[in-house]
Give the backbone structure.
Amino acid sequence: MNRRFKKATPRRYVLTGLLALAVAAAPVAVAQRPLSNGVNANSENGPSFEVASIKPSRPDSNDLDWDDLPGRVSIRGYNLRQLIRVAYGLKSDEQVLGGPKLVDGERFDIVAKADDAETAKMQKMSGADWVKERNRMLQSLLADRFRLRVTAGERSMGVYSLVIAKSGVKFKASAPGEQRHDLSGHNNHLTATGVLMSQFADYLTRLSEISDRVVVDRTGLTGDYDFTLEWSRDRRDGTSQGSQYPGLFTALEEQLGLKLDPEKAPVEVVIIDSAMEPARD
């Protein structure tokens, strides 16, 4: 599985997450508040794609794939809860609460394209800014085609705090003037170059060992860093399964001098008020 974060380049994400099936049937106690990333839930005047195709994914395929450039996005195998998580800039599917059964049901393949003027505008933006613009366009698409209505808020949830272990940090800051920013993982091997700890926390949130909790950066480290990490799948107790590498929790401490501490903390969430099956293309 590869994940890359690069400045002002095409992005390709292959992501997974644990679905919050039980939440849909239970009352949701949430303090309503705007999201810190500037997202305005249910904005009526945001940017939108000029054309979009939405089709059901092949039932015999379990692939999840996301490709985009400024002004264009191609998505395969995402259900509505996962689409909402991306559109609202959240880290985990656990932050998308409630909704009818269809939210966790059928998966969709989506291809959407902005008009030439919007595409040209996005091409002049920084990587972070055009991704925010794309997310606003995805929100408009979900509101139009899925009749999605949501409420933004905050809820106390279980998280993992990424902190520095007693042994101290075991990796170094990137060389001065280093322009490369890359975070790529494959088969439980991670190579990071010029990476922020907040980006690393987001990466950890996506891993199967972590995916029922959001990982929050509390290291206090503010620079760009280079490191590698190798681990094996575990049961969150650091025990590996016949691998030469330890489990993730142990590997973090032994190789990087970092720990994941479980705690409760306020987490930004989006509550699904209503949603409908989209019209078929």
